[in-house]
């Protein structure tokens, strides 16, 4: 409620009409919802209850005084608590009325009565409506659509909005009644979203019941001041007398002294205002001669309600009263009166009771007479509460549920509601009915409205989307639930589009909780994996994206689970096949699928994650980022607890005080302490570490036992008091090379020559020194580990030595097989890890020595590792995005996690969950930790990541690759087996002749090995030239007759033939040298007429004719050429590079047909493939997308995000087969209509821009083509480029 001109804003919004289009309809619907909330949450909506507001004046005054005292300082929310029916809602409504009169003209009161409708039970909807109301009132920019529909971003926006209002000097009061009525399905009752540190000029008042809800316990834990809690206590007898007098005066009735005494005597037993209200509703119908002995007043509200219901049953019938209240209580949200009448008309028991004495006049149409409902509604009075969207609720639902919803009635109520929302008896379908006066069943039309999924285009049946799954499940109609909801893509897409993916996950979670069904669990997990993507799209999801994502994740489960998942996949395939726009149809599973190791992705940063810590006791995860943000998550429900801002570049974070506080150290030199309960910054100390220049590394050690914080960077150490951040002392020694850390209060430093110094910061007399053996001036320390429990120090040097030193100055030296770059230990410090290169070493810690007991070999560089708390499992992260889980007892590899998408620089474990982070990625990923007894699990259709070269067959059944860590072997992989082919030197390139089945391996020594796949025991060899140059690139002609090999100094052409049915390679019969200044060849294609088109590392593009011994320079690129792909009929070639430019060349004659340039999201091309008809060209890019282009027009037809860069592509039937950097095999078919709609936008699911520049295809143009290479003139070509026609750019801001 805005004091002042707020209503005109609302009226103006209400008068706006839908202009058309899905987005306009959605905005209009949200405006209507907001206006309904504004009207339903105003103070006059409380009705008569405020006219007799008595007995709470003192409590109201205390709350107003607390609001006034909090005006000029930061404070916590005020909490009103009490039992149900004690008057909390009336008190808050009165508070809103009073504050409107007290606030200045620029003040605003926002009131929300939670739980009065489905929308008001959803915290995201409530926050969104509050933000929009505040922004409209104070003329602030509203949240973007993406922010408004992403929970974490919306919470941050809400908190920031309060700060903006405070800074502007405006006054704001937010009142949230009944926090315990928020939906518990999404764990919002944990109240992480509620601001705990309220800025000046802003006040927040909330209410909750005092028992039976976790909300109060969470509030008591986060709101630290007892004075912020206001308990609504029972009323006294005098207050009850005052309320009774005012009530009776308002209804113009009076009671006899005996009746008054009886009411007060009963009220005195509870002191509950609701109890008194129900008794007064009964008393207003008494006559003056009604004897007191007949009153039988009860001692609490529940018993009085039962008496009222008994009276209503006698007057209107038990079936009618019970069914009306039972259906209202059974609804997931709320029922309107029209809906309730329709549902009652479908209840055979109700109609049998209504027509027990006489049949209906029209036997073909049977409904509940409207007059009966009107009489019953009148007698219900204020037992029914009008909610939002014309919905009605019941007072004291528990009492109604106990009386009218026993086990058999519960299922029957849900069955009738399910039939209503299914539309089973609508549109003239007759429902049989047996009436008492008729001997035979009566087939009659109940005249209930149909319940389609879409009322009209863009207008969904939201009530059906909300109610139907709930009632089908509780009615036990599992087959109907699977058919109409879980196994229907139409339903799932409609609900995601209109209600959000979280609502679908909530429905599926409800299903899995009540019925054990692995298919439902897999479908639910699919949408959990999809949620970050769909949230990012903010409801603007294109249907092709939905069907593609679902099919690409569930395809592999279709045969295993045909009833549900198979049906979903079939529906997705049918929709995509009939799509009116261009689309790629997945033919296999290639996106992260459910049932795997990945649990979820945590996002919220803009830059890489640089610090991580976990509190196992409270299962709290805290992470800091290079963007300066610190985020804390609750690992139980994966909700954001706090988002802490203020830093620039977080270096270290630490959880303290059993998860109630945390410390953060940043590159801006500040040390901050935060309360994780309230989100309040407790202190901020400047210049804790040097800032000029900013430190590359800085460390923080916390000793909670002594309440000290040690910070050190370079040779400087500072010691602070943990609670007040007072600088106790600091140490800075110019002779110290580096401070290694703090060991049990002793500062340990390392000087030149390997001198280790143990010193106590407060006393120089206690300094002890020891010199490390075999330490020279050229050595540097590479890693340090402090074992606090053992009082030991471990130092790894660049010379490959591990030094163990004790506080007693005893030390030992161990030579390592690698130079250790990191050290870490288990929680009990009995095991420690040393990692370097491709090796992870495990040691047992002893008093004076360390004992190595396990070596774990990796395929690439190990960057981090950690040990489980039970010391049974070790987890390692590598440079090539891979996480491996090992058994410590056996050394076996238990699992491999693929899909991190960045080098794994930080790992943590928390009770069966692996947390991975990267300084190059803005997200964290959570994985399921396998049991040490489980066998190794390998994802189907996926090869190990971290390969340097790869080749695959056209059907994608066989993949040949070279690992980054083992380039001297070629691995042949398929879903059932893996073979290894050893080679004599490092492999530089791989190429596969598909029809002749020859695998070519170019080696660093200049040799080309040829493996005839039809003869596994045989190997052919092309010997290197005399100079032994490295093989840079190998290319095979489109008919596989010729082979081109690019060395460092030349390019040679060979013939691929057959002798006695055995493959043979002859030559080289053609060769042309490369100059010393020539950049190395990076990609190449062989044309049929003895020409070679190649690109270099410097972006040059050349065409060489072996017959004419001449070359031509084509328009080059500004970066390395990554892709030169020839069309199947050798009419075109696509040249792509690391920059955002690709060019499509016509080869006969040689012309530049199209230049495609990218901006924004798009990045360079990695690979390409032409369709079998050469009509389309598919490209895989570094931006993790697959794009489809029209060869003739150069138009972009489709863009698909595949979550990983695609590195190799081949044409396959009417689509392509490819492999991603994460090792997933991708098979897709392309469907495109003959004529693409002019309104079609290929960038509707991505955020980026592209421009296509095409030549004028005019036969009369003198420069339309270059026909002869010898006469090729670069000047002429540049002149031709001036005549190119530019097509319009396409821009989309959806993703």
Automatic annotation (TrEMBL):
The residues covered by the NWD1/2-like winged helix-turn-helix domain are 299-408
What residue stretches are annotated with the NACHT domain? 77-248
| Ranges of the WD repeats in the UniProt entry | 602-643, 855-896, 1114-1148, 1158-1199
Supply the Pfam families for this chain: NACHT (PF05729), WD40 (PF00400), WHD_NWD1 (PF25469)
**Signal peptide stretch:** none
Query: Which keywords does this chain's UniProt record carry?
Result: Repeat, WD repeat
Q: Does the keyword Repeat apply?
A: yes
- Protein known as: NACHT and WD repeat domain containing 1
Source organism of this protein record: Esox lucius (Northern pike)
List the gene name. NBEAL2
């Amino acid at each position: 409620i805005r004091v002042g001109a707020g209503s005109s804003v609302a009226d103006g919004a209400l008068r706006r009409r839908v202009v058309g289009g899905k987005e306009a309809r959605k905005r209009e619907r949200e405006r209507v919802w907001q206006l309904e909330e504004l009207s339903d949450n105003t103070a006059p909506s409380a009705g008569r209850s405020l006219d007799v507001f008595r007995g709470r004046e003192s409590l109201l005054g205390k709350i107003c005084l607390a609001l006034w005292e909090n005006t000029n300082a930061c404070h916590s929310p005020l909490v009103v608590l009490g039992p149900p029916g004690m008057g909390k809602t009336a008190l808050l409504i009165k508070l809103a009325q009073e504050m409107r009169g007290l606030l200045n003209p620029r003040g605003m009161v926002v009131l929300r009565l939670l739980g009065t409708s489905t929308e008001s039970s959803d915290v995201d909807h409530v926050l969104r409506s509050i933000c929009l109301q505040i922004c409209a009132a104070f003329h602030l920019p509203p949240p973007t659509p993406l922010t408004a529909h992403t929970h974490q971003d919306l919470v941050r926006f809400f908190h920031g909005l309060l700060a903006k209002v405070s800074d502007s000097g405006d006054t704001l009061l937010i009142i949230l009644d009944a926090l315990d009525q928020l939906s518990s399905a999404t764990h919002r009752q944990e109240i992480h979203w509620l601001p705990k540190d309220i800025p000046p000029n802003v006040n927040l008042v909330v209410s909750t019941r005092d028992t039976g809800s976790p909300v109060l316990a969470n509030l008591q834990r986060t709101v630290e001041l007892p004075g912020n809690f206001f308990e609504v206590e029972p009323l006294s007898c005098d207050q009850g007398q005052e309320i009774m007098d005012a009530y009776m005066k308002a209804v113009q009735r009076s009671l006899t002294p005996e009746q008054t005494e009886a009411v007060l005597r009963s009220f005195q037993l509870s002191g509950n205002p609701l109890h008194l209200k129900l008794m007064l509703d009964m008393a207003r119908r008494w006559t003056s001669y009604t004897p007191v002995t007949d009153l039988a007043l009860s001692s609490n509200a529940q018993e009085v309600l039962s008496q009222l219901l008994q009276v209503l049953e006698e007057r209107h019938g038990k079936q009618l009263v019970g069914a009306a209240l039972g259906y209202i209580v059974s609804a997931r949200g709320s029922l309107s009166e029209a809906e309730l009448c329709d549902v009652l008309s479908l209840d055979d028991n109700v109609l049998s009771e209504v027509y027990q004495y006489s049949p209906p006049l029209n036997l073909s149409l049977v409904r509940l007479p409207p007059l009966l409902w009107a009489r019953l509604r009148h007698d219900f009075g204020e037992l029914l509460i009008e909610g939002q969207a014309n919905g009605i609720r019941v007072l004291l639902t528990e009492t109604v549920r106990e009386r009218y919803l026993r086990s058999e009635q519960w299922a029957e109520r849900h069955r009738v509601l399910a039939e209503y929302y299914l539309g089973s008896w609508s549109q003239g379908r007759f429902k049989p009915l047996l009436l008492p006066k008729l001997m035979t069943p009566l087939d009659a039309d109940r005249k209930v409205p149909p319940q389609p999924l879409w009322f009209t285009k863009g207008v969904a049946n939201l009530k059906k989307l909300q109610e139907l799954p709930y009632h089908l499940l509780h009615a036990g109609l599992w087959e109907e639930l699977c058919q109409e909801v879980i196994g229907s893509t139409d339903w799932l897409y409609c609900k995601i589009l209109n209600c959000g993916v979280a609502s679908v996950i909530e429905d599926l979670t409800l299903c899995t909780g009540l019925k054990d069904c692995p298919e439902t669990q897999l479908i639910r997990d699919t949408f959990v994996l999809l949620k970050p993507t769909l949230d990012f799209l903010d409801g603007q999801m294109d249907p092709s994206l939905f069907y593609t994502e679902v099919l690409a994740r569930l395809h592999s489960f279709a045969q295993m689970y045909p009833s549900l998942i198979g049906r979903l996949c079939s529906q997705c395939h049918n929709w995509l096949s009939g799509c009116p726009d261009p689309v790629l149809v997945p033919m296999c599973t290639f996106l992260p699928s459910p049932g795997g190791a990945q649990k979820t992705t945590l996002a919220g940063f803009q830059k890489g994650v640089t610090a991580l810590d976990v509190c196992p006791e409270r299962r709290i995860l805290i992470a800091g980022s290079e963007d300066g943000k610190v985020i804390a998550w609750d690992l139980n429900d994966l909700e954001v607890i706090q988002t802490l801002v203020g830093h620039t570049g977080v270096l270290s974070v630490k959880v303290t005080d059993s998860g109630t506080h945390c410390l953060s150290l940043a590159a801006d030199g500040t040390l901050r302490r935060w309360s994780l309960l309230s989100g309040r910054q407790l202190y901020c100390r400047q210049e804790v570490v040097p800032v000029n220049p900013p430190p590359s590394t800085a460390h923080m050690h916390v000793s909670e036992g002594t309440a000290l914080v040690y910070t050190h960077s370079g040779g400087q150490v500072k010691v602070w008091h943990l609670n007040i951040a007072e600088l106790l002392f600091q140490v800075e020694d110019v002779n110290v090379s580096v401070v290694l850390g703090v060991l049990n209060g002793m500062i340990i430093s390392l000087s030149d020559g390997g001198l280790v110094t143990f010193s106590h910061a407060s006393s120089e007399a206690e300094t002890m020194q020891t010199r490390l053996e075999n330490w020279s001036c050229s050595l540097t320390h590479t890693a340090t580990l402090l074992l606090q429990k053992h009082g030991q120090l471990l130092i790894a040097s660049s010379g490959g030595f591990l030094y163990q030193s004790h506080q007693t100055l005893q030390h030992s030296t161990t030579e390592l097989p690698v130079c250790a770059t990191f050290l870490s230990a288990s929680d009990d410090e009995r095991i420690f890890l040393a990692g370097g290169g491709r090796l992870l070493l495990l040691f047992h810690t002893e008093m004076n020595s360390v004992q190595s007991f396990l070596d774990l070999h990796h395929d690439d560089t190990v960057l981090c590792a950690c040990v489980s708390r039970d010391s049974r499992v070790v987890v390692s992260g590598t440079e090539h995005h891979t996480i491996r889980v090992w058994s410590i007892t056996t050394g076996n590899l238990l699992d491999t996690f693929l899909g991190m998408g960045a080098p794994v620089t930080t790992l943590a474990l928390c009770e069966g969950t692996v947390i991975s982070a990267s300084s190059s990625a803005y997200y964290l990923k959570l994985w399921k930790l396998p049991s040490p007894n489980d066998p190794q699990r390998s994802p189907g259709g996926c090869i190990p990541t971290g390969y340097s070269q790869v080749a695959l067959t056209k059907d994608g059944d066989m993949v040949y690759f070279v690992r980054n860590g083992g380039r001297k072997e070629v691995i042949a992989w398929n879903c059932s087996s893996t073979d290894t082919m050893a080679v004599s030197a490092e492999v530089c390139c791989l190429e596969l002749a598909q029809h002749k089945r020859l695998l070519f391996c170019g080696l660093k020594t200049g040799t080309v090995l040829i493996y005839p796949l039809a003869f596994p025991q045989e190997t052919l060899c092309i010997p290197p030239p005399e100079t032994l140059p490295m093989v840079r690139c190998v290319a095979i002609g489109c008919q596989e007759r010729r082979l081109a090999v690019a060395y460092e100094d030349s390019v040679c052409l060979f013939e691929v033939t057959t002798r006695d049915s055995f493959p043979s390679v002859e030559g080289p019969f053609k060769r042309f040298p490369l100059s010393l200044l020539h950049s190395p060849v990076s990609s190449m294609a062989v044309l049929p007429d003895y020409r070679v088109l190649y690109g270099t590392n410097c972006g040059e593009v050349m065409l060489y004719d072996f017959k004419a011994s001449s070359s031509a320079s084509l328009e080059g690129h500004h970066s390395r050429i990554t892709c030169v792909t020839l069309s199947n009929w050798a009419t075109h070639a696509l040249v792509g590079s690391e920059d955002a430019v690709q060019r499509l060349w016509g080869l006969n004659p040689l012309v530049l047909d199209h230049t495609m340039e990218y901006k924004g999201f798009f990045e360079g091309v990695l690979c390409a493939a032409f369709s079998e008809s050469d009509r389309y060209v598919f490209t895989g890019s570094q931006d993790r997308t697959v794009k489809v282009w029209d060869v003739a027009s150069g138009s972009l037809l489709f863009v698909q995000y595949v979550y990983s860069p695609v590195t190799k592509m081949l044409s396959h039937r009417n689509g392509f087969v490819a492999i991603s950097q994460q090792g997933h095999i991708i098979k897709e078919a392309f469907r495109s209509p003959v004529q693409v709609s002019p309104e079609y936008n290929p960038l509707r699911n991505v955020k980026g821009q592209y421009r296509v520049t095409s030549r004028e295809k005019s036969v009369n143009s003198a420069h339309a083509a270059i026909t002869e290479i010898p006469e090729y003139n670069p000047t002429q070509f540049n002149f031709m480029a001036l005549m190119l026609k530019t097509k319009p750019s396409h821009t989309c801001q959806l993703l």
